[in-house]
Amino acid sequence: MTDLATRHGAAAHHGTAFRPGIDWEHVVRLLVGALMLAVALVIIVLPLYALLSQSFEDHEGNFVGLANFISYAQDPILRLSVFNSLWVAVLTVAIVVPLGFFFSYALTRSCMPLKGLFKGIALLPILAPSLLPAIALIYIFGNQGYLKWLMFGHSIYGPVGIIMAQVFHCLPFVVLIMTTALATADARLYEAAETLNTSRWRIFWTITFPSVRYGLINASLVVFTTAIVDFGIAKVIGGKFNMLAIDVYRQIIGQANFQMGAVIGVILLFPAVLTFIVERVTYKHQTSQLTARAVMLQPKPSRGFDRLMLLAVAVLAVPILGIIGTAIFASFVTLWPYNLSFSLANFNFGAFDPGGWLSYWNSVEMAAWTALFGTVMAFCGGYLTEKHRRGSRVLLGYHIVAMVPLAVPGIVLGLGYIFFFNMPSNPLNVVYGTMTIMVMCTIGHYYTVPHLMALTALKQIDSEFEAASQALGVSFWTTLRRVTVPISIPAIIDIATFFFVNAMTTVAGVIFIYGSTTKVASIAVVALNDTGDEGAACAMAMMILYTSAGVKLLQVIATRLLLHRQQQWRSSLREA
């Protein structure tokens, strides 16, 4: 194909060398790239700029330099929030990373049965809003909890409850990262160690641990950042324990102190940016674990070891199932704990909120629009970045902007949306309080991961397709439609699912920008919990989980069917 492309390219060049004209494909690529960059700037960069500007201004909009930051540093209560957020995040990392590593080690380095089932259980929390474990823990360990005696007189409200809920919420992130890290290993190293009669403990510290060090660092950074910036858990179960994410909410909603809210938002940027920088530095020092001659490690059956791993994983799965099971049970009882008879009254949301089911359907609508527009934008932007970025400053700029959300917490971006879109002089002010701004914020908040997913999928497609199409005079959009998109359908489905699930579960990103008619299910859970309607809050949170799980199941089925068809197509080509 390369030779064919070269000959046709030479012929095309020879035939058009003296024919002046406009390269319309280049013009289209430039225009689309500029449009993508403009949209990315609007939904990501400009709100952050508005946030930073607000932190250096007074109530009248005058520049005051670092005065707001100095005022923040002089407030002992606000300083305490920084300290609280840091030590809670550190302790969460110290608990959940070893647990997630051990869970992942059992899944990848043993021959225990039911691996798929237990991995699915470990990933269940990712389908639920962070509010769910906080509410369920109140049912378990709260003042009327059925395991209240295990608290030994202490209250679940405060750092204890926050850390427990964070461990539940962050476990899937650690499992996803560590199963990937542990799945790639060179069997020759382990065979050599076993030949030398090296103990399992020494093999672990000299071979296994160094090979997954980068994964452990990544997992720790992700958990640390998530624990600091999460809003939902601290809001529900934090009690009077001050944390940064709650301080932002109180300053903006409770006191209308936008300048101090902007200052806290900027402070919340620091751990995320620091995490991003550390990850980039460690990535540069990471060496490849698999060479061309490597042999993939396959775990060997060992009855005693496999049973031990199965028992350990089952023990770790019990709290996950217990928390979700409690939320399910609480949503179907009449009145906890006085009347535990079955009832669907908690799902009659109209009895607790004038909007009734509107919040749930708003979430579904927002998730659907986010999945549609987010997927189109991420894939098209990824295509132009991967296949046509060379020499294009516009596409390079787009790629840089697309990486920014990785270091921006959702509550910070949502705060920036208030300052940017609520300005009367901004022509985009018309979208404030509408579903449009919520879709924009959700796409911007989660944009980096789909962008990287698109790049990863497109890197696997040989660039000779574009070279041959160009040589044969076929436009790049025709190649995109007839070749690239059909091959990338599984990745496109993954991107759409990622956007949909995260849009269903997001809280912090939209807590400041929803309107009276655009309140979503996750915000309704917060409101129901504030009014003391925990049963209805559990029911709404479970509706989010049911919807996310259903979409995830559809993704798995669709992907398998598509892969099966692609395998049949490839087999028929080989036979031909």
Describe this structure in a few short sentences.
By secondary structure, this protein is mostly helical. The chain has helices at 2-16, 24-55, 67-73, 76-109, 115-123, 131-141, 159-183, 187-195, 200-211, 213-229, 232-237, 244-254, 258-284, 303-331, 358-388, 393-403, 410-421, 435-445, 448-459, 464-471, 476-487, 489-505, 521-530, 534-575, and strands at 333-335, 339-342.
The low-confidence parts are 1-20
Number of helices: 24
Q: Which structural class do the helices and strands define?
A: mainly alpha
Helicity level, as a percent range?
over 70%
How many strand units? Answer: 2
Assign an overall shape.
globular
The largest sheet is: 2 strands, antiparallel
Output the strand order for the largest sheet. 1-2
Rg, Cα atoms, Å: 26 Å
Strand proportion: under 5%
Terminal CA distance reads 18 Å
Mean pLDDT: 85
**What oligomeric state do these chains adopt?**
single chain
H and E order: HHHHHHHHHHHHHHEEHHHHHHHHHH
Report on the architecture of this protein.
The chain has 24 helices and two strands. By secondary structure, the chain is mainly alpha-helical. It has a two-stranded antiparallel sheet. Helix 2 (24-55) crosses helix 13 (258-284) and helix 19 packs antiparallel against helix 22. The radius of gyration is 26 Å and the shape is globular. The protein starts with a helix and ends with a helix. Residues 1-20 have low confidence and may be disordered.
